[in-house]
Design brief:
2 domains, Aspartate Aminotransferase, domain 1, 12 strands, five-stranded mixed β-sheet, single chain, seven-stranded mixed β-sheet, 369 residues, alpha/beta
Length: 369
C-alpha cells in the first residue's frame, strides 16, 4: 500500500482510461501493452497487491466474481471431471448445473466439510479440478484446505478455493496447498458496495495461468478502469474492516446462540460449530464477518423477522460497511440446500450492541405478530 506515483509523487494511483497503446516505430510494443482488453496500467497495483496479500505469484482482476470463477472451469476440456461442494455460492452452483454440464464437464457435488467425501469422489487421472468454498455461503461450512489439497494433487488435479468470505486477512489458501484462489472482489476486498469485480490469484505463473489470462482477454471479462481503482481504494482499508467485522460477528454469534427465539447459530467461531476445529487451524485473527441464524418458527418467522429490522438492511451481497440481512432460501429458489428458516447476516461497521438490539426487537415483534 506504500505506492507513490514516480512522476507526480501522488500517494493515490491515477486512473488510466486509455483503450489502446502506441506502437514503436519498428511496429513493436516495447511498453508491453497493446490493447486494454488484455490489461491496463490501472490494474497493475491492484493485481500486485492481491498477489502479495495471498502469497501468490500472479493475480488477475475480472469484471465479476462469476467471471473469475467460471474462467477456472472454462480452462478445462469437455469430459473433464470436477469435484465441488454442495453448499457454495448459488450463482456458480447454478452455472455448473446448467452451462458447465451442457458444455461437457462432469460435475460431482459432495459435502464440502467432509474430507472423506472428496477422497471418495476424486478420480486419479480424470479429475482435473477440485473446488472449495470455505467458509461456504450461507451455512459457513469449513473445508480442510490442506487435507483436500493433498487428495487433489495426489490424483493429478488442481485445487481452487473461493476465499471470498475469509479474505487473505484470515486465510491464505496457497499456504495450505491451493493452486488458485478466487475472490468475489465485490465483497470484502472492495468493502463499499459500489463495484462488481472478481479476482484470481495463482500459486504459479505457469502454462495454466497463461490460459486463464488468455480466457480473460478473449472473453472480454476485464475489469473497468474505474472499478479497478475503486477496488484498490477498498483494499487500503481491508485489514481494519475485516478485523472489526470479525469481532462484531463473534459477539453476535455468542449472544444469539443463547437467544430464546433462535434455533441455531451457524458461525465458525463458536466451539459448538461442526467446522470450528478446522477453522481454527487455517483461519488466523478471527472467523469472519458472516454468520447465519436459524429462527424458531420456521420460514414464516424468519421472513417476518427480516421485515422488522431497522438498522440491518434487507439486501443481497456481503462484505460492505453496512450490515445486511437476507432470507437466503427465497433468493436461491427451488433446489437450494439452504434451510428455509435461515437468515444470513453480513456484519458491517455498526456497533455490535446496536446490531444485536435491532435483530432482537425484530425477533420479538415477529414472534408476537
Amino acid at each position: 500500500m506504500g505506492w507513490v506515483d514516480p512522476v507526480t509523487k501522488a500517494v493515490v494511483p491515477p486512473i488510466h482510461m486509455a483503450s489502446t497503446y502506441l506502437r514503436d516505430e519498428d511496429n513493436g510494443y516495447r511498453s508491453g501493452r497493446i490493447y486494454a482488453r488484455a490489461d491496463n496500467p490501472t490494474f497493475d497495483q491492484a493485481e500486485a497487491t492481491l498477489a502479495a496479500l495471498e502469497g501468490g505469484a500472479k493475480a488477475l482482476v475480472f469484471s465479476s466474481g462469476m467471471s473469475a470463477a467460471t474462467a477456472c472451469f472454462l480452462a478445462l476440456s469437455p469430459g473433464d471431471h470436477v469435484v465441488v461442494p454442495k453448499v457454495m455460492y448459488w450463482s456458480l452452483r447454478n452455472w455448473l448445473l446448467t452451462f458447465a454440464t451442457h458444455w461437457g464437464l462432469v460435475v460431482e457435488f459432495v459435502d464440502g466439510d467432509r474430507t472423506d467425501a472428496f477422497a471418495a469422489a476424486v478420480k486419479p487421472g480424470r479429475t482435473k479440478l477440485v473446488w472449495l468454498e470455505t467458509p461456504a455461503n450461507p451455512t459457513w461450512a469449513v473445508s480442510d484446505i490442506a487435507a483436500i489439497a493433498e487428495i487433489a494433487h495426489k490424483a493429478g488435479a488442481l485445487l481452487g478455493v473461493d476465499s471470498t468470505v475469509a479474505t487473505p486477512v484470515l486465510t491464505r489458501p496457497i499456504e495450505h496447498g491451493a493452486d488458485i484462489v478466487m475472490h468475489s472482489a465485490t465483497k470484502y476486498l472492495n468493502g463499499h458496495s459500489d463495484i462488481i469485480a472478481g479476482a484470481l490469484v495463482g500459486a504459479r505463473d505457469d502454462a495454466h495461468w497463461a490460459k486463464l489470462r488468455a480466457i480473460r482477454a478473449q472473453l472480454g471479462t476485464i475489469l473497468g478502469q474505474t472499478e479497478a481503482w475503486l477496488l484498490m481504494r477498498g483494499m487500503r482499508t481491508l485489514y481494519p474492516r475485516v478485523a472489526w467485522a470479525c469481532r462484531s460477528a463473534q459477539t453476535l454469534a455468542e449472544r444469539f446462540a443463547a437467544h430464546p427465539m433462535v434455533a441455531e447459530v451457524l458461525y465458525p467461531g463458536l466451539p459448538s460449530f461442526a467446522g470450528h476445529a478446522a477453522a481454527a487451524r487455517q483461519m488466523t485473527g478471527g472467523f469472519g464477518g458472516m454468520l447465519s441464524v436459524r429462527v424458531k418458527g420456521g420460514e414464516r418467522a424468519a421472513i417476518a423477522t427480516a421485515a422488522r429490522v431497522e438498522l440491518w438492511k434487507r439486501a443481497t451481497s456481503l462484505g460492505g460497511v453496512e450490515s445486511l440481512i437476507e432470507h437466503r432460501a427465497s433468493i436461491e429458489g427451488a433446489g437450494t440446500p439452504c434451510p428455509p428458516d435461515l437468515l444470513r447476516l453480513s456484519v458491517g461497521v455498526e456497533e455490535a450492541g446496536d446490531l444485536f438490539d435491532d435483530l432482537d426487537q425484530a425477533l420479538k415483534r415477529a414472534h408476537n405478530a
